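Form 12-C: Joint structure prediction
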Amino acid sequence: MARVVVDVMLKPEILDPQGQAVQRALPRLGFEGISDVRQGKRFELEVEGPVDRAALARVRELAETFLANTVIEDFTVRVEEAAGAPDPAASGTAAEGAVA
Amino acid sequence: MTTRIGVVTFPGSLDDRDAQRAIRIAGAEPVPLWHRDRDLHQVDAVVLPGGFSYGDYLRCGAIARFSPVMEPLVEQAKAGMPVLGICNGFQVLCESHLLPGALTRNDHLHFLCRDQRLAVENADTAWTSDYTAGQEITVPLKNGEGGYVADERTLDALEAEGRVVFRYLGGNPNGSRRDIAGITNEAGNVVGLMPHPEHAVETLTGPTTDGLGFFTSVLKNLVTA
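Section 2 - Result
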């Protein structure tokens, strides 16, 4: 079982009032220096079988037809390495967790 | 033979009964359609009503678009059957690519519920022929994601081809590009708008009866067709 992550973000030219509301709240909370916030969606797909080129093509297809509305949103597809693998991105995530 | 106009009920539809009522008041026979129906029961036109189909999960209208009933609906809409999408129904039509563009979160983030003045810009569609171009109408508006967006090229094309059917008057309520409240497809049989004409068909419950014209328009067009 492998995890494929689909990130969906509003296109840069589309107004993101939710992100703006979050950004405007930050100084009130004492967090200075954040000039912009954009809010998006993250989908974690547990894929059965090997995540080969064909499987990724299927995920891209479902992202394009369903998870994202490409009129207003962009999306990216990436394979997330299994936990414990010596992957720098994965260990970075673990380190952030430890700090929190 | 009476004209039969279908009204689709999705899980989470709210205004299906009001749409049926408006159809009846206009003199046609409302036919309830279920989201799982695989055929349209020989209706002459279809209304996709307002509400929160599938809880607005993922995006408004995104899951309803893949309902079984949408397959024959999209096919017949492309063949010329009149289809009206109101509010959530408009969102479903955009997600189905029967209409261009998309509806996004209101720019002020609030759910807005008020009587809304509109200008009828195109009185030649299947659903607006009982109005006159330039006429002003008032019907309720109630949504949280009513901001109409499309890229500049699409907006220019909509304007050039007269496919902007309704524009907001008295201030833009949600950040819609170019004050667009409703649009139509190239053939003029598919119309979508965020405001609710089906809530303005009786003086007892509506601010006006301005919305009735949608349903009398399509009835006349179907009878004379």
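Section 3 - Comments
The interface with chain A takes residues 58-59, 62, 66, 94-95, 100-102, 104-109, 147, 149-151, 175 of chain B (CB under 8 Å). The two ends of chain B are 13 Å apart (CA to CA).
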